[in-house]
Write a structure and sequence with these properties.
The chain is of the alpha/beta class. The chain has 13 helices and 15 strands. It starts with a helix and ends in a 36-residue tail after the last helix.
């Protein structure tokens, strides 16, 4: 690309020089001072090179920096929240930690940037962060405008929560209700669509972040609140009396939540997808953080995963052959991450879309879930 740009500039300037040299004095209407062509060419070439700069890959950038910058959430229990020691922890955060382990050998070589819903597009587009892992729905326009969505880490859908005292048991009973919702979310857009399509006549009030939405709802400013069902579970458990609130059955949208990387770096995009595949296949093969074999087991898929036999493309991406060992020791497999952060909230996995699709070869498969990744081979 740089070479083409520089060649084009040189060609244009050379043509200009030839033209200037071939023009007779008689043809010149108003003689201009002769340009120093050589100096101009040199200056333009320098400018073109400085413009595009040496192309540093995201992997090189992260390794030079020594830290992975990951946009996340710090207000959503289970997914990304501040623990008692002031650290941001959660299901989404563990994916950032897994990528830090894969590329830097250390899950803690991580800078987490708490980001509100509305800030997500701008931070992704600026290129200032390496990845975002934050209860974020993969949509077609975000895929075009924000960056590349790797794949789905958690399948969700939008739901509603209302005080039990309201006496409603279905979403359709919320007709004419006032609803609190967060700005800059798919939630806000889906809510309006649903209201229009079903004549719900919702009175919608929007808030800039989750805390403000939750405070307004619990303070009685709205009849109900809406967000991803997982977000409702998380929010409900933080309310003064969770039992006084009901999450209504049903969903009004598809919310596939997953990580995003900046556009334009295939290697980096593939690395994040590969790390997710490592987490998923480690669970499928029964490899857990407390028992990561470091010598050949005789089970070919396990040995390949752990870099003990053959390859699944990890070195081609600039990763260590034993990258999966580091990742699994650091954060565990997908199932361990789920158990650590989402099971305590009561977000059941068994029989849900967030179960594994299969652990082939198997006799009891497919297991019915949708958690799946490109086979590691
Ligand atoms: N998945 C939806 C909603 C994501 C979202 O931001 N949800 C809210 C409510 S659960 C949230 O996490 N807010 C946290 C905050 O902004 O502090 C999306 O991607 O737009």
């Amino acid at each position: 690309m740089n070479r083409f740009k520089i060649a084009a500039i040189i060609t244009a300037l050379f043509a200009f020089a030839v033209l200037a040299a071939c023009t007779s004095p008689e043809e010149t209407v108003a003689p201009a001072p002769a340009p120093d062509i050589e100096a101009t060419v040199e200056a333009r070439v320098q400018e073109a090179m400085a413009d595009s700069g040496p192309e540093t890959s995201r992997l090189e950038l992260v390794r030079e920096r020594g830290v992975l910058v990951c946009a996340g959430n710090d207000t959503l229990a289970g997914f990304g929240f501040l623990d008692a020691d002031g650290n941001i922890r959660g299901f989404d955060v563990d994916l950032c930690r897994a990528v830090a382990a894969a590329v830097l050998g250390d899950p803690d070589a991580l800078e987490l940037r708490p980001t509100t819903a509305a800030e997500r597009g701008p931070v992704m587009q600026s290129g200032e962060i390496d990845m975002m892992s934050r209860n974020t729905t993969w949509t077609s326009s975000r895929d075009v405008q924000w960056g590349n969505f790797a794949q789905t880490m958690f399948y969700d859908g939008q739901g509603f929560m209302a005080p039990t005292s309201m006496g409603v048991s279905t979403i359709m009973e919320l007709q004419d209700a006032s609803i609190c919702v967060q700005q800059g979310t798919t939630t806000e857009l889906n809510l309006q669509d649903f209201s229009n399509q079903n004549g719900m006549n919702f009175a919608i009030t929007t808030f800039p972040d989750n805390v403000a939405t939750e405070t307004a709802y619990s303070g009685g400013q709205c009849d109900a609140m809406t967000t991803d069902r997982s977000g409702l579970v998380s929010t409900r458990q933080g309310l003064a009396s969770p039992d006084d609130h009901i999450i209504l059955p049903g969903t009004i949208s598809e919310e596939p939540l997953g990580p995003v990387v900046p556009s334009g770096d295939d290697q980096w995009y593939d690395i994040v997808k590969m790390v997710m595949a490592i987490l998923i296949y480690a669970e499928a093969y029964g490899v857990t953080s407390d028992d990561v074999p470091t010598s050949v087991t005789g089970n070919t898929p396990v040995d390949r995963l752990l870099g003990l036999e053959g390859s699944f493309g990890q070195e081609d991406l600039g990763l260590d052959v034993t990258v999966a060992q580091t990742v699994i020791k650091s954060v565990g497999n997908y199932g361990e991450i789920y158990e650590r952060h989402l099971a305590p909230l009561g977000i059941a996995r068994e029989g849900s879309r967030n179960a594994l699709w299969s652990a082939a070869p198997c006799t009891d498969c497919p297991k019915g879930g949708q958690i799946y990744a490109a086979p590691l081979r």
